[in-house]
Amino acid sequence: MSAILEVRNLIKEYPGVQAVAGVSFSVVAGTCFGLLGPNGAGKTTTVEMMEGICRPTAGQVLYRGEGQGAQFRAEAGIQFQSTALQDFLTVRETLVLFHSLYPKQADLETLIDLCQLRDLLERDNRKLSGGQRQRLLLAIALVNDPSIVFLDEPTTGLDPQARRSFWKLVQDIKAQGKTILLTTHYMEEAYVLCDEIAIMDRGRIIAQGSPAALLAAHFEDVILTLPKADFQPSAQFDAPLLDAGELWEVSTRDIPAALRGLESAGASLRNLRIRERTLEDLFLELTGRELRA
Ligand SMILES: Nc1ncnc2c1ncn2[C@@H]1O[C@H](COP(=O)(O)OP(=O)(O)OP(=O)(O)O)[C@@H](O)[C@H]1O
């Protein structure tokens, strides 16, 4: 497994803030690597150093074993968190403009279909919905047929349907053999898309691995959920019970025993559900804080 991109002990300091406090990892070619964490964790700063647009205070970024030189610039595609699109240009004009800037070019017609932009080609950039705009920004990131694509929080602010349709696009790009570096604060997004994730908090990586391996390493239980209306716990009920808003959550490694315990404590099991542990739970476990707090 060859690393296409390697980050060694990256540090970025701003006056009074250590945004990135010594981060190291490598990204295997053809995989999707996710940087996760809450607002202010240091994801964007890390990714901007990897993109070569922000100079590290210390540390190194290696692309195919070398610094970020001409080869990196030719082979990288970047979708920034926010990009100003030219007013008064249509989607087609915007794509043609960006496409013309690069010596190596993806086939524009294929790209238009891939990013589902064909019906929008004559539309003014200012008239695009959030999801349509993100698809255009993704197409712009792909105009030079990059080997590695950086996507910085590409689905933030999108509705769930637009988010899922963007996930499908990312999967299609990965199926073409491209490497993807994704930042997100949506744990489900990371779980669906990423082969490997690094969870960041306060400028450091606090856990790294495949989503499934990380969950398996940290949790052996499952969670039973039931509406609070269906269970009034008494002092006799001594299983770990978590308050999750409208629901009670019961952690257990022995489902039949937990069900018997709930039933004998007077709970109605009619609306009981079982869920597996998620990356949100992992973040809470690692930091003691909710991800979106
Ligand atoms: N140019 C800057 N000058 C000073 N501080 C900065 C600068 N850029 C980022 N920071 C600080 O560095 C820390 C990390 O910010 P960063 O944007 O990398 O986090 P993030 O994980 O990408 O968060 P978000 O999800 O909000 O984008 C924050 O405390 C931020 O305020």
TrEMBL record:
Signal peptide: none
Keyword Transferase: no
GO molecular function: ATP binding; ATP hydrolysis activity
Matches recorded under InterPro entries: AAA+_ATPase, ABC_transporter-like_ATP-bd, ABC_transporter-like_CS, ABC_transporter_ATP-binding, P-loop_NTPase
Residues spanning the membrane: none
Domain (ABC transporter) ranges: 5-227
Swiss-Prot/TrEMBL keywords: ATP-binding, Nodulation, Nucleotide-binding, Transport
Entry-linked PANTHER family: ABC TRANSPORTER ATP-BINDING PROTEIN, ABC TRANSPORTER ATP-BINDING PROTEIN NATA
Recorded family membership: Belongs to the ABC transporter superfamily.
Protein name per its UniProtKB record: ABC transporter ATP-binding protein
